[in-house]
Sequence to fold (390 residues):
Amino acid sequence: MQGNFSYHNPTKLYFGEESLNYLKDELTHYGPKVLLNYGSGSVKRNGIYDQVVAILKEAGKTIIENPDVMTNPTLEKLDEGVKIARENDVDLILALGGGSVCDYSKAVAASVFYEGNYWDQFWLKQQNPAEGQRLLPVGCILTMAGTGSEMNAGTVITDAEHTFKVGHVFDDRLMPKFSILNPRFTMTVPDNQMKAGIYDIMNHIMEQYFSDFDDNTSDYLAEGLMRSLIVSSRIAVKNPQDYEARSNIMWTATWALNTLIGLGKQQDWMVHMIGHSVGAWTHAPHGYALASVSMAYYRRAMMPGLPKFVRFAKNVWNISGEGMTDQQIAEAGLQALKAWMLEIGLPLTISELGATRDMIPGITETTVVYPAGYLNLTKEDITEILKESM
Ligand code: NZQ
Ligand code: ZN
Fold:
């Protein structure tokens, strides 16, 4: 293992079909006013909202509702949530939804007691709240598997006015205090969002896996997670009601991005940087935006990262490699990745998401670029990747 690191993950998880039963106990740790953030209504249609509200009422909580947290939450909506939390002096923020609601809740939690311009400080300048700044606690009841937001400190917010989507990973003070993961709650996720979530998970693992050449325990963990995801995704796309597959996907999502498999690694995250920009311009589901630029990106990274791509082919896709050169093995691995993406129905081009050639300069412009993984890209390279992804 390279480097020096500390590992502390403060999020307590409750997993399984009975997991919502533990909400009542968790609520005893917090004051009476609960800000309940949720999305555009799916939790009302599938009955999860009623279950949660009943538990909150039974626990004697005052519920302050903040509905309509949109997918890819905006700065405007963040301002609204901060205002509601300030006006109502809330004690706990409860996120009921997918990664968007969970990210958003952490963003509100960080900003409520910050006196300056929180957008500028936390997202544009990528700072963390000062030691001693009060932060509201967040609990998450997750309804969609993908982002890992339930056990990390990531918050991705979109400045819709400037078509700019930017994430900030706070320190562990902003990780949810607890998260409730009931795989049954994910059964009503629309087909496209389930698939987007699956690729988001895969790409989180790849972003961490494709860096460095040392022998690192983190990479073995990553390979195990990818293998599990590939098996379960194939089952889930055929039968979305398969509990075993959906529960494995949910658990894999959490471990794909709760900091563990990135330890001792430089990591990459450029597919996410390009994907965020594509998402801001096309409004595509996050995982679809990642999928649409992945093949062009990894084809570029393959030769500079050849030994890792060979390992990916062999350990993740079971390519024996007999009689093949390293380059051929690595190419076969990427081919297997592509075949799996097609098999589960992911978009492989940005044009499928509605991107047009005239958007390429804008998408390039709003992509954050830095040396990462096995590449040191320029803005011109981003343009080329986007063109190849048309
Ligand atoms: O609005 P509602 O009604 O909740 O509907 C949502 C939304 O339309 C729906 N949905 C969720 N659970 C459902 C359901 N529909 C029916 N039944 C259910 N059980 O699915 C749609 C997508 O939900 P959303 O929360 O937007 O998806 P996801 O979990 O993929 O979150 C995406 C956001 O997370 C950010 C992304 O950039 C994006 O803004 N990310 C956060 C990360 C982190 N915290 O570390 C990392 C990721 O890379 C990602 O960037
Ligand atoms: Zn992601």
User: Anything to note?
Assistant: DSSP finds 15 helices and eight strands in the chain. Residues 231 and 245 are 8 Å apart (CA to CA). The longest strand covers residues 33-38.
